[in-house]
């Protein structure tokens, strides 16, 4: 009898507190992850967690994909720069207007209808935090997605909305967060 080995499931993590994402002429940039901030799932990404993944020589250029809503069938652009700095995981890339999902994402971003980033990864090394969550020490980064609902209200694209719209978006995000908590 043959046994099948399967790879661990791809995990997703939404942008954390204090993130600012800029969008200008199809170029999107900002932080897809911030170090030291605990998310609603109790996980904290630690400095250096992405280093090995980003330095891997076995992965071709462009190996970290830009996806729409974590859908592997909907790449919407390319990440031209992904690196760790003292704050977190910085990303800069181009949303492709020649791709239907890219046009849709760009239009929705520009209108302020969507404004979140989320990472798709596999955990390589983690330990338990004092609060019972995980401290992610090493992750294998697969993709960074543009998403509708980031996990935290502060994980928003700042360059496309005025202050009043941001307040409303924050209130709406809180309502959705409460609804998700009730459904869990």
UniProtKB/TrEMBL annotation:
Task: Give UniProt keywords alphabetically.
Answer: Hydrolase, Protease, Viral release from host cell
Q: Specify the taxonomic lineage.
A: Bacteria, Pseudomonadati, Pseudomonadota, Alphaproteobacteria, Rhodobacterales
- Single GO term (MF): peptidase activity
Q: Which Pfam families match?
A: Peptidase_S78
Any idea where the Prohead serine protease domain is?
Answer: 25-161
Signal sequence annotation: none
User: Which GO BP annotation is one of this protein's?
Assistant: proteolysis
This protein's source sits in the domain of life called Bacteria
Name recorded for this polypeptide: HK97 family phage prohead protease
């Amino acid at each position: 009898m043959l046994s099948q080995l399967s790879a661990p499931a791809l995990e997703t993590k939404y942008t954390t507190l204090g993130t600012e994402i800029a969008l200008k002429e199809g170029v999107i940039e900002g932080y897809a992850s911030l170090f030291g901030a605990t998310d609603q799932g109790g996980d904290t990404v630690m400095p250096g967690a992405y280093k090995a993944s980003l330095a891997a020589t076995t992965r071709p250029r462009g190996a970290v994909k830009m996806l729409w809503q974590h859908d592997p069938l909907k790449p919407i652009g390319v990440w031209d720069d992904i690196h760790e700095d003292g704050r977190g995981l910085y990303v800069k890339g181009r949303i492709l207007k020649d791709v239907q999902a890219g046009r849709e994402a760009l239009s929705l971003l520009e209108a302020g209808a969507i404004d979140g980033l989320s990472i798709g990864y596999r955990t390589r090394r983690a330990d338990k935090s004092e609060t019972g969550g995980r401290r992610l020490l090493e992750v294998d980064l697969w993709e960074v997605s543009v998403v509708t609902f980031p996990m935290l209200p502060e994980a928003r694209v700042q360059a496309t909305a005025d202050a009043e719209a941001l307040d409303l978006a924050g209130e709406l995000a809180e309502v959705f967060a409460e609804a998700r908590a009730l459904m869990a």
